[in-house]
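Quick one, tokens below. Sequence please?
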């Protein structure tokens, strides 16, 4: 099982949309996929029309000393081969427990390790803040996928995210590959065009050579989660991004350039 952490310390960059579209694409290709909502705001969970009140069984339970069975928390979705571990508001309390519960930073990795033969891919939708939840995801991940808007403020947020990835990489003592996906791109704005150029000049082959364009259909998370065929140019762009993430022609052509 390959674990992808979808993360950015800046909010509003399309993180949940990215997690959902990539997971749908993997499942459509025949993979067994687990989506794990690690954000206390539970946007991904709500997209699948799962009520958060009363709180469902979900990802917060993985940080309980006596519960490390992710499989028991996974629920089927309307998408074949795609299961979800829902988020709970109690995830917001994890930070306070860190000082009194040694080893909490590795809880998610230990839990996911038990599922190596059950799924082909696990995607973790991370909260947009640096803390124990994000550190857990990065410590467990085989790859860090960073959606980022193409604007100057988002590039500053990307720099912060990459510094965090460096910190976790040193701590876990193994590499953490990073893949950057330009999202919410508007070619009509000078800021968007210039920021995209800067992004590619600065980070080179870590950046997907395509873009996810502005597309209002991507704002309807319920449709992305529940519709039989979401469609739209944004969803189609994510299909191309997924091919690149899996080592498709786009990446090979860029790295050969």
């Amino acid at each position: 099982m390959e674990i992808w952490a979808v993360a950015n310390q800046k909010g509003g960059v399309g993180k949940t949309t990215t997690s959902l579209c990539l997971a749908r694409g993997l499942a459509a290709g025949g993979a067994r996929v687990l989506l794990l909502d690690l954000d206390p705001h539970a946007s991904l969970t709500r997209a699948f029309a799962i009520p958060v009140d009363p709180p469902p069984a979900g990802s917060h339970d993985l940080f309980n000393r006596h519960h490390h069975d992710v499989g028991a928390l996974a629920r089927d979705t309307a998408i074949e081969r795609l299961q979800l571990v829902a988020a709970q508001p109690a995830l917001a309390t994890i930070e306070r427990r860190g000082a009194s519960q040694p080893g909490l930073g590795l809880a998610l990795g230990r839990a996911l390790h038990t599922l190596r033969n059950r799924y082909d891919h696990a995607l973790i939708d991370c909260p947009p803040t640096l803390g124990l939840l994000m550190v857990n995801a990065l410590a467990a991940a085989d790859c860090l996928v960073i959606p980022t808007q193409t604007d100057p403020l988002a590039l500053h947020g990307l720099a912060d995210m990459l510094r965090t990835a460096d910190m976790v990489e040193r701590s876990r003592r193994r590499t953490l590959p990073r893949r950057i996906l330009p999202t919410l791109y508007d070619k009509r704005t000078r800021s968007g065009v210039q920021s995209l150029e800067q992004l590619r000049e600065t980070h080179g082959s870590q950046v997907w050579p395509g873009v996810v364009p502005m597309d209002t259909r991507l704002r309807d998370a319920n449709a992305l989660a529940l519709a039989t065929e979401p469609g739209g140019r944004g969803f189609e762009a994510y299909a191309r991004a997924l091919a690149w993430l899996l080592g498709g022609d786009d990446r090979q052509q860029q790295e050969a350039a």
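The domain at 2-256 is CATH 3.40.50.300 (Rossmann fold). DSSP finds eleven helices and seven strands in the chain.
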